[in-house]
Heavy-metal-associated domain-containing protein
Amino acid sequence: MTTRTITVEGMSCGHCEQTVEEALESVAGVESATADRDAESATVEGDADVDSLVAAVDDAGYEASA
């Protein structure tokens, strides 16, 4: 299993973090996801493709980059 951290911009509250976590956890291969609005990042455990992670966050309304 791989741990990846991606940059996520636009989170301003706990609900934003939860939305990002749920979006990431919906990606095939993700075991768990933790978003941190203060660090503007999300850490993902699993074997998901990084492009899929970025796309999921973008689709949820936030800006992500690897």
The chain has one domain: 2-65.
